[in-house]
Structure formats: structure tokens, C-alpha cells
Amino acid sequence: MVKPKSDIEIARKAKMKPISKILAKIKVPDKSSAFSPMGRHIAKINFDFIEKLQKKKDGKLILVTAITPTPAGEGKTTTSVGLSDGLNKIGKKSIVCLREPSLGPSFGMKGGAAGGGYAQVVPMEQINLHFTGDFHAITSAHNLLSAMIDNHIYWGNQLNIDENRIVWKRVMDMNDRALRFIEINTDGVAKDFKRIDGFDITVASEVMAIFCLSNDLKDLEKRIGKITFAYDKQGNPLYAKDLKAHGPMTVLLKEAIRPNVTQSLENNPAIIHGGPFANIAHGCNSVIATKTALKLSDYVVTEAGFGADLGAEKFLNIKCRKAGIKPNCVVIVATIRALKMHGGIEKEDLEREDVNALKKGLVNLERHIDNIKKFGLEPVVAINHFALDTKKEVDTVLNFCKKNEVEVSECKHWAKGGNGIKDLAKKVVKICKKNSNFNFLYEEKLSLIEKIELITKQIYKASKVTISDKAKNQLKIFENDGHSHLPVCIAKTQYSFSTDPKLKGAPSNHEIPIREVRLSSGAEFVVVVCGSIMTMPGLPKVPAADNIKLNKKGQIEGLF
């Protein structure tokens, strides 16, 4: 049996076209006012050109989400890229909009996020590593505020900052559990201002969330100014604008905020921009990227992080609400392998046929289908094909979807690119022709606790929500400070509808404990931290970094 080529081997042999030719396909002219090349195969679209697009009609928006993630893999990004290629194959003008990968997962357990097989965006190495430096800019802007906070305290603390109520940590784009809690100012000239601090991963930064929810530079600066970084000794909130930090922070983001354009293996345009954590934030690419793509194409394929419970719920209740957009179709990606894991099969046993386990695992897919329908949207199921899937197993999922009156398509884009997913593309176009009955799950006027209970009970099927006294007090403070209208962002494990990552399938009547809540006043949502979720991950026992190296030709190996 011939060993299949790795993702990086396939990507390395891609016949990429100059970025000007990719942009020409979506009528972005080869002018300096329209885009700025970042090398031969990457460009940033300029705001002067974006502003000229505003009177154009929007294309159709397709959200790609998935069942609850498992170690077996689901292939959401691969399906997003493949679907966009498939739409182009059937004669439609399509752009895929993705998040930028974080170095943490790239060197950790998950690997990169540029798709896979013959459904990838390229140049794969650059996209998965430093790309255009956007994450560096976001990290720098975040840490500038951190530096200005401690500098202000050192020089007399005119704002009367309560050192015990600073809520702004530092960030870096790497998994490093040793930095979750640190002591700073322990020696030297600042030793009189010793305090506890810590690091989050860059994708968990509120600056990242703001970056991805802003409409333009002016909106970006306004939102940054509204960041709550601490409270004074009388309990009043202090904002970034009080430190005059919003100006220089915006300067650091001036170039990064422009959307990045690359291409798929089939030379179709891909806009890759921003990348907030799907646990602690809303887990979607930037609003600017999505809105720009909607003006430039007939169909925009975008994705939301993790499963539909964490990703799609936030995309719909937060991003769509803030951006004034709505999807015309939702694709739920599932694999036979992952569904069997939800039915109780261990990863090492997935290669053997097991229809019974598959049937048990289908409750997970069913829950996600029901949840998407709660938003008034029509889902279509994409079965991401693996070589060892048997006909009986595939037929089981097809019959399940038919019984539940949901469109379904077996997709072979990993092996065949756009040609392997044309059936799904046609079904998506059919659904997009219908009128969308999209509605939000909750209204802004509800209290924060009411929003939390509604999501946990309707989406996660919890029977009880327990909120710590600390969290209750925080919610009262947020509401008293005028933030009761904000949407809520549930931060919990991605591996289960419950807060127990080992509880697969579709658990119901469980308890969701809320440990703390965090205000993202600039991004305009409240983060609800459930269970033991971490905002600074650690590396696994055997990280991907162990196998990443340069070969004798100077080429990167081990990146996936």
C-alpha cells in the first residue's frame, strides 16, 4: 500500500499563482491603492479599496461548523477550503474566510490550521507560522497596555489603581503553562510594586477579540479605549483610554487590521485574518474579512471554532449580532470515526467497522442539528470521508439524515479537492436560494444570568447552573457599570456538551459550574468561565514541536 503524502508534502508541490492573478478573479485591481503585496503569494487588501465596495450587494454566507471534537478529528477547516473550491468548480464565485493559526497549537497537540490533503490554503508553512505578523502586532499591542499599567503605578499611580484588582494579564503566542501565574517586580528598582500577574495565550487576548469584531480603524481605536484593565481603590472601572493607551495600541495594529489574501491549492482566493480562541472568545475570523469577502464574491465560506455548541452559537449570537450579518446556510461536519468515538469506541479501535457504536454516537450529531435549527437556520451535514469508512457505516449516517429530513453529502475533498465535494456545493447553493429565517437565541434586554441560563439549558441541555459567589458579585458589578445588555461568551471544554471532557455523545441533565466571569468591555461581551478551562494551555507530553525541523534541503518537516 502506497503511503499517502503528508499535508506539507502536498502543499510544497502546489502550483501557486502570483497573488495579483488570484485577486483579479474577484475583481481586485492590480493597483497600489487596492492591495499591498506581502511577497509573491500573499497580499493585504487596503482600506481605500474596501471603502469603495460598500455599495455592492452582499453574497451568500455559509457557516461551516462541526460535531463535538474528538481526537479522531473532524476536518472543519479542510471542509471549508474544499467547499469553496467545490463551489468554484460548479461555476460559482466563492471565497473562503478562515482564522489565522496560532503558534501554540501548531507546536502543541492540534497542529496547524490550513486545511489538509488536497483541500488546503497555501503557502502552508508561512500561514501556520509567522504569516504576515498580525499575531505579533496583537501581542505587542496587548503587552504595551500591560507595560503602561505598571509604569503608571511606578510613577505615582495618579489613577489610584488598586494593584489587587488589575484584570489585565500579559500574553504570548505559545503554550506555556509555567507562565499562568507569575510574580513581578520582585527585585530591582520596582521592587516596592510587587504583585501577582500571569500570561494568557495571544488568541485569548481581548485585543484579539476586538481586532476581529471591529469594522475599521476608527472602530478599533474606540473599542480599545473601552478595555477595562483594572479598578481603582473606590471600585470604579478604569479604561485603556484613561491611560491614553488606545492611540499607540491602534498604531501597532494599523497594518495588521487589513485582511490577508492567499489561495487554495486550486488557486481560489482565501482571506485569512484574525484568530480568537474559541473557548474564551468568539472563535471566528475578522468581521472586516467576512464583510469584504461578501462584497467580492457570490458565496463566502467561513468557519467557527470547535463544535457547533461553542463555535456556531458564538458566531450567531455574538459575531452576527455585532456585524449585522446572517448566514444563509450552515454546514455541520461529521466523520464516521468521530461519531463512533461518541458511541463509546476508543481511538485505537476506530479502524474496524462498528455500526452499533456509530448509531449510538449519532445522538451528538442530532443535538447539533437541533441546536442550529433553534436559530431558524437550515443545516446540511457533510460526512468528511476517511479511507476506512465502510459502506454500511456511511449508509447509516445517510439514512439517519434522511429520516431527520436533513440534507447530507459524503465529501471526498481531502483526496480529490473541489471535485470530491461538488455534491455538497450544489446542496448548499440550493439552500442559499431559500429565504433565511435567522433569529438570535436571546434578546439583549435579558439579564446576564438569564442569558447564561438560556444558553446552558437550551444548547448544552444542562438542568442546573451553579454560579460561584465570586462570579455572582462580578456579574452584579458588570450590570451596575452598564454592561447588562452585552452578549455572553461561554468558555468551557470543547470536548463535551458538559464540563466533563470525558462525557461523550449528547449528555443531558448535567450541572454546569461557573467559576468566574470576565468582562470584555471593548469587545463587548462577557466571558463565562465554566469548569477548569485554561486561557494559557500547556504543551502535551509529546508535542508536535518534537517532530518539527529543517531537513538537509532547508525545508520544514513535521508541520501539519
Written overview of the protein:
This protein has 560 residues and is α/β, with parallel strands linked by helices. It has three domains: 21-132 and 256-432, P-loop containing nucleotide triphosphate hydrolases (Rossmann fold, 3-Layer(aba) Sandwich), CATH 3.40.50; 135-251, 2-Layer Sandwich (Domain 2, N(10)-formyltetrahydrofolate synthetase); 448-530, Roll (Formyltetrahydrofolate synthetase, domain 3). The chain is built from 19 helices and 25 strands. Strands 1, 2, 3, 4, 5, 6, 14, 15, 16, 17, 18 and 19 form a twelve-stranded mixed beta sheet that branches. A four-stranded mixed beta sheet has the order 20-22-23-21. A three-stranded antiparallel beta sheet has the order 7-12-13, with helices on one face. A hairpin with a 4-residue loop joins strand 22 (510-520) and strand 23. Helix 7 (134-154) crosses helix 8 (206-213), helix 13 (336-342) crosses helix 14 (355-373) and helix 14 runs parallel beside helix 15. The longest helix has 21 residues, at 134-154.
Give the SSE map.
Blueprint (H helix, E strand, L loop, with lengths): L6 H6 L6 H6 L10 E3 L5 E3 L1 H6 L7 E7 L9 H14 L4 E5 L4 H5 L7 E2 L2 E4 L1 H5 L5 H21 L6 E6 L3 E3 L9 E3 L10 E3 L1 E3 L4 H8 L3 H9 L2 E5 L4 E3 L6 H8 L6 E5 L4 E4 L14 H10 L2 E5 L4 H16 L5 E6 L1 H7 L12 H19 L5 E6 L6 H13 L3 E5 L1 H4 L5 H11 L15 H11 L3 E6 L1 H12 L7 E4 L18 E11 L4 E6 L18 E2 L5 E2 L3
Parallel strand pairs: 3-16, 3-17, 4-15, 4-16, 8-11, 17-18, 18-19, 20-22, 21-23
Antiparallel strand pairs: 1-2, 2-14, 5-6, 6-14, 7-12, 9-10, 12-13, 14-15, 22-23, 24-25
Helix pairs in contact: 4-17, 7-8, 7-10, 9-10, 13-14, 14-15
